[in-house]
Amino acid sequence: MPWARFDDRFPSNRKIRLLSDGAFRLYVSAICWSAENLTDGVIKAAELRLVADVRSARKRAEELVDCGLWEVMPESGWRIHDYHEYQPTAAQVHVDRKAKSARQQRWRDKKKGDDTPPEPPPADGDVDASTQPSRDASGDAAPRARVPGPARPDPSPPSGGEGVCASTGSRGRADKAHTPIPTEFQPSSKSLAWAEQDGHLERLGGLTGLAAVTAAFVDWHSAKGTRAADPDALWRKWVREQRTTPAAIAQQGAFLVPLPGGATNPPVDPKTAARRAARDDLSAIAAELRAMNGGTTA
User: Fold this and answer.
1) Fewest CB within a 10 Å sphere: which of 30, 100, 155, 165?
2) For residues 201 and 189, what is the distance between their CA atoms, to the nearest angstrom?
3) Residue 65 maps to a domain
């Protein structure tokens, strides 16, 4: 069915504000009636009682005529003034319905596997036209596009964009194959230059730290089964996301003290170790002061 369109400033229009409640209801109902029945804004006198259940409908119609919203059609009824300024003509609605039926038929034929449409597809393509396209006041239509379902996947991958990990389920360029991360993977000279230029080489502890990061990168993605069209791009992403340097890990390991029997103490935080050293130094100074004062600190 067609749509009835109203401007968003319709209620605040000067002519509309002056209407009585009954005349307002009759006017809005008449627009909807005409859109539904394709009367091109014509309200027949015999059908007035069918348009809206308002008291004194003819008196309300005269009010609309006096306000310039309706025009009298002698021996017939009334015509809504400037109806086609916002509403489509009956002829336009019939053309749209015919185009919709053609789109629906082409869509059904393609769904059945028929590759010979009855006519060349229009600019809006083949869509599921089982519902009326939504329209705004400008007359633009937005038909619902056909979305491929699991039973009919779209065989053509999208074009454009960088290749990404296939393990995420997304697709990249059709001309770049996704392959597993090689176990002997090493970043290219271009990627190494990028790491040095952006400060990642220094941040991660030089070439030794970068080698440890690369080894962790290969181990992680090999175990995960990641497939990528550009392993170097994935490696650069991995490097950017590193927050703990191999040097810091090694420094924490320096505080591991072996215990008898092969057990080890848990790692000691560097700040905690510094506080303990300072406390030991203060204890030694206090002992020397007691010795100098004959066993007292005062």
Assistant:
1) 155
2) 13
3) yes
pTM for the model stands at 0.37
Task: Please write the tens of the pLDDT for every residue from 100-153.
Answer: 888 888 888 888 875 555 555 555 555 555 545 444 444 444 434 333 344 344
Q: Is 5 within the bounds of a domain?
A: no
pLDDT in tens, 237-284: 988 888 766 555 445 444 444 444 444 445 556 656 665 665 666 666
Query: In this predicted structure, what is the pLDDT of residue 259?
Result: 42
Whether 240 is in a domain gets the answer yes
Query: Are 225 and 270 within one domain?
Result: no
Q: Which two tokens stand for residue 52?
A: 């809206």
Answer yes or no: do 176 and 205 share one domain: yes
Indicate if 98 and 66 belong to the same structural domain: no
Q: Domain of 221?
A: 172-247
* Residue 54 · residue 62 · CB < 8 Å: no
